[in-house]
Amino acid sequence: MTDEEMKQLALDSGFTHAAFMDVADLEFDAALRQYCVENTCGNYDRNYACPPECGTPGEMEEKVRKYKRALVLESVQPVGSVMDPEETKTAKKAHNMISREFVNMMKKECSESSAVMAGPCTFCKTCAQIEGKPCRFPEEVYSCLSAYCIDAGKMAEHCGLPYWCGMDKVAFFSIYLFN
């Protein structure tokens, strides 16, 4: 599949924007892990895709650096207010749903690939970590940009994508990683 075909597939899948970049150009900042530690989403130490279970900042960067290329996927969705957590949670869920669908389509094209999502893994209604059990679907676990310590603002800037869209629109990012 050519880059243009892949980008068009992403746009046809429901993303507002899609842009390629080299993985080497992604910027990592271990200080971003603090967003996870503050546990505003409630998944710290309660989800296999989230810290501390997912790995240290260095281990997470190493997982990403195994790949050469990244397709940055962005959805921009209208909301009444970006300050409304229920609205943004619904928008994030919709973004991650199309991200998973896109990744599953791409797995048929490229078996050596991975993804970074826009929030904690929600593949299972209740994460097995809470139950003290092994992950039921380890091949479906994708961590978020904060867990990876990827600077989303710099990534968006590098790709020429909007990061802040105002008080009435919310932007979420996923990354499809491949060689």
Give the helix/strand layout.
Blueprint: H1 3-12, E1 17-22, H2 33-37, H3 57-65, E2 69-78, H4 85-107, E3 113-116, H5 145-148, H6 152-159, E4 169-178
Overview of the structural elements:
The structure is a single chain. The chain is of the alpha+beta class. It has one domain. Helices cover 33% and strands 17% of the residues. The chain has helices spanning 3-12, 33-37, 57-65, 85-107, 145-148, 152-159; strands spanning 17-22, 69-78, 113-116, 169-178. The longest helix has 23 residues, at 85-107. The mean pLDDT is 94.
Low-pLDDT segments: none
Order of helices and strands: HEHHEHEHHE
Distance between the termini: 12 Å
Q: What's the tally of helices?
A: 6
The share of residues in extended strands comes to 15-25%
- Based on DSSP secondary structure assignment, what is the total number of beta strands? 4
Give Rg in angstroms.
15 Å
Which structural class is indicated by helix and strand composition? Answer: alpha+beta
Summarize the biggest pleated sheet. 4 strands, antiparallel
Distinctive features:
single chain; 179 residues; alpha+beta; four-stranded antiparallel beta sheet; 17% strand; globular
Short description:
The longest helix has 23 residues. By secondary structure, the chain is an alpha+beta fold.
